[in-house]
Design brief:
5-stranded parallel β-sheet; globular; 42% helix; 6-stranded mixed β-sheet; 12 helices
Length: 324
Amino acid sequence: MTTEAKICQGPHTGGQGPSSLDELVARVAACGARPRIALAACAEAHALGALLDAMERGIAQPLLVGDMDQTARIAAELGRDISGIAAVHAPDPREAVQCAVDMVRRGEADVLMKGLVNTDVLLRRVLNRATGLPPKGVLSHVAVFELPASGGTTRLAMMTDAAVNIRPNLQRKLEIVHNAVAVARALGIARPRVAMLAATEKVILPAMPATLDAQIVARMAEQGEFGEADVAGPMALDIALSPDAATRKGVDHPVAGCADILVAPDIESGNILYKSLTILARADMASTMAGSSAPLVVTSRGDSERSKFCSIALAGYLALAARS
């Protein structure tokens, strides 16, 4: 069996998880129980349009929170009817965010989605220990995208963290990996394969301190830090994803050539990798903020309509997985 075939057919997936973003959408729709998405500060055309598309595709039940006068005008410009959708009029963005957070905390919504409000405002409300949705560890950004696999098929892979943790220390990297592994398992990958990315497979100090962190995380994985998971590091991107590159460079590891999760050493490299996938490779992406008690949809203004829609589907999938 080739390495590519092992990616899709190996026991780490068990054949249970979706292999593409379209399949992810289809699985949420097939459940019949539409996840309730609270859109905070909902007067934002792209987020509103994506959420209404998700409603029409049967994968979301919108709950609109924000300036409803302005939202109604935007909906009319989009040619959409929102008259039958549950809504809370909260003109101030901070008030809207808190109201949406409260809905999730009380169990009235399954997912919190960002609208016309700065990300830092939303995350401060989420992280408030008294009135928010504080994570057990840290929040981290997890993006899901498609990679080619054997026989013309695809598989889902993940990358983290492109948006939240600027220069994570060793402890924070452990929590970032925990978050990504949890998302992978929710997507049906029972034994995720994690690559701690770097520019080389060697530990080089003091010039590249991230290489030492990567090595330590990999060794802690061997001691059971992440349960059933294979972690390799430091590992360059080509070896993590290309079986040919791994063979040419003589790297023999379960992760080599078939990583499920790519862990960037810092936000700069993570953000560059994310935007390289979306801009240069034109890859469709779905993303979530992992680590919170409920899935968060916090898309970028630069994300495509398709990526926003897929992010709603991903959050809905994770919410349904948490229910079950």
